[in-house]
Amino acid sequence: MATVEIVQADITRLSVDAVVNAANSALAGGGGVDGAIHRAAGPVLDQECRAIRQTRYRSGLPTGAAVETSAGNLPARWVIHTVGPVWDNSGTQDGLLASCYTNCITVADEIGAHSIAFPTISAGAFGYPLDRATRVAVETCTRARTDIVERIVLVAFNAKAERAYRRAVDAVAG
Predict the structure, then answer these.
(1) 3-173 adopts what CATH topology?
(2) How far is CA 103 from CA 72, 119, 142, 151, 159, in A?
């Protein structure tokens, strides 16, 4: 079982085997963490994402799925891209959000990544409530079954997100 850590940091600067990109389905780079990862990784990431869109995912990466690329100029070796659900207030997307984490950990196992860093998937532009997004992340990652991954880092983008993660840890442990 992997250890789960919470840090407030810039995910593009972390020294881990794989960083997760909260991507759009076109894998085209965008705002938030997606744009930051694409900018920091450099043009190789865009090239690999275009190749994936032209071959494996011609209609776009489905919500909850995960796919890897190299990491370009990032300290990590790989970027694992996943598309989180857009919040619609129905309360039905938790399973899709959990599948983002589960599928990324599965991909990390497949590529031999011992450490993986996750942003707070869907909690930015996709509108997922922060407390709910962090709870799903903590629950899913603490229960993850993995053969290779030893360290899972949940990266808070600010102090508010870090507090939400810590509350989620307390709730899951309690």
Answers:
(1) Leucine Aminopeptidase, subunit E; domain 1 (3.40.220)
(2) 22, 15, 14, 16, 27
Compute CA distances 35 → 29, 52, 73, 138, whole Å.
5, 18, 14, 24
Q: Write the pLDDT tens digit of every residue in 83-120.
A: 999 999 887 899 999 999 999 999 999 999 999 999 99
Residue 10 designated active-site? no
Residue 154's Cα: distance from chain center in Å?
9
Fill in the amino acid letter for 48.
Answer: E
Six-digit token string for 91 = 């309360």
Interstrand relation of 78-82 and 66-70 (parallel, antiparallel or unpaired)? antiparallel
Please tell me the distance from the alpha carbon of residue 104 to that of residue 65, in angstroms, as a whole number. Answer: 8
Residue 8, pLDDT score: 97
Q: Which of 10, 17, 34, 88 is catalytic?
A: 34
Alpha-carbon distance values, 28 to 51, 90, 118, 161, 169 (Å): 11, 28, 19, 25, 33
Q: Which residues pair with 70 in a beta bridge?
A: 78
CA angle 66, 67, 69 (to 5 degrees): 145
